[in-house]
Amino acid sequence: MVTLNGHSLTLPQVQSVLYDYEQVEASAESMKRVEESRRAVEKIVAENKVVYGINTGFGKLSDVLIDQKDVEKLQLNLIRSHACGVGDPFPETVSRAMMLLRANALLKGYSGVRREVIECLFALVNCRIHPVIPRQGSLGASGDLAPLSHLALALVGEGEVFYKGQVVPAITALRAEGIEPLTLTAKEGLALINGTQAMTAMGVVTYLEAEQLAYQAELIAAVTMEGLRGITDAFAEEVHIARGYPEQVAVAKRMRDYLSDSQLTTRQGQLRVQDAYSLRCIPQVHGASWQALGYVKEKLEIEMNAATDNPLIFDDGDKVISGGNFHGQPIALAMDFLKIAMAELANISERRIERMVNPQLSGLPAFLSPQPGLQSGAMILQYCAASLVSENKTLAHPASVDSIPSSANQEDHVSMGTIAARHAYKIVQNCRNVLSIELICALQAADYQGVEKMAAKTKQFHVMARQVTAPLAEDRVFAKDIKSVAEFLTRTPVSAVTGKPFFKEVS
């Protein structure tokens, strides 16, 4: 059971809820804060004070006062009118993360919702009812309004949800689990949609996959080093300490560890004096990506525990402040940074692929083919990798540098953070496919060089990977191999080879 309090949610806890379906609950202290905040809202309504989002319109319509008898209708109208997302739905995991993160934000006690709202979110998470949320349509400021509105629809029994492997009307799933649909009251609709939980949820899922891939990229590169008889002197500790980046030092250490007992790697001058950059500079390039990942992780863990509602309620309702915590700029910049970091891991991987398939660079059969000419071998595998890294270069263009005013120019600067998060996720999927291609080629190169001479850890990885992709004995439909290897990487963290935990400090 993961207990939320609005302040201390961690990425490992999120991972356990998303992938292990850990149940969630609220701490008693956080629910006390929620109830105190709700009493403040009820006092505002009873005294007929004019407060944005409680008895006014929204955005440019904030100057329109709403009659007390229409306060509930105001909140439902808000949800329905803002639920205008388009495109394919977010993955179920992201939808699940959005509910978890929204509940955690509301538990901070600044939003003025009833405890029933949070309990309903918990019920959907614990019963694995995941709203169908279109992934396009958010500007990433004023909150992720469109995506979160589709989430809120499910709470009131409208819209659609993923439930037991099917898409069904939300009310059907709620009734099946005995969950009573919400009737939103003052401020609750606004509190559900004014936040950054779509971009943050997408960012969290993307980060978790990116971190695993970054570790896998090093292990795959180690197999490539053996396939190309790479020089390990470049990973010497003193070289990397001399520069000073702890992430670079850590990558070099892991590379030395993977290759410590290899009989395939070489020393300076044994076969050549220096390796190409894609081999020699693995610690520098991968280490720089780890620096970016560290930055992204820090920002996500802050945002996961942030109050991103508007207005926020302080001092038992004596102070209700309209601010801008819903603005997604911190996550937009982090996601753009993540895009670049993961695109570079794919970029350098593709260069290692080229070195393995090019006989002038590898000393191996052309395109790793057992019969070059009659069989094309891995020729088009490299083409595919090149296409993916080129696509990544377009996706890596920063979304955060764009802004289009909205709400009659009231909301005149927006973050586009959800676009950045979506593009980051796509880059990670592309990166996984590129690394899958590198692994296919590296396994074959190692086969030619002699698997029995591989290091213990890379040999173990070789054995595991060979269960999903056979040697290149003859040409076949390699699209199936790429898919199989990508699925293998998705379900096989580096800890399966090294025994080290999935989550570990980079330093």
TrEMBL record:
The keyword Transcription does not apply. It is found in: Cytoplasm. The keyword NAD does not apply. GO terms for molecular function: histidine ammonia-lyase activity. One of its GO terms (cellular component) is cytoplasm. GO terms for biological process: L-histidine catabolic process to glutamate and formamide; L-histidine catabolic process to glutamate and formate. Pathway: Amino-acid degradation; L-histidine degradation into L-glutamate; N-formimidoyl-L-glutamate from L-histidine: step 1/3. Gene3D superfamilies: Fumarase/aspartase (Central domain), Fumarase/aspartase (N-terminal domain). Its EC number is 4.3.1.3. The modification 2,3-didehydroalanine (Ser) is found at residue 142. It catalyses: L-histidine = trans-urocanate + NH4(+). Contains an active site 4-methylidene-imidazol-5-one (MIO), which is formed autocatalytically by cyclization and dehydration of residues Ala-Ser-Gly. It comes from the Bacteria. Keywords: Cytoplasm, Histidine metabolism, Lyase. There is a cross-link at residues 141-143 (5-imidazolinone (Ala-Gly)). NCBIfam families: hutH, PRK09367.1. Belongs to the PAL/histidase family. This is Histidine ammonia-lyase.
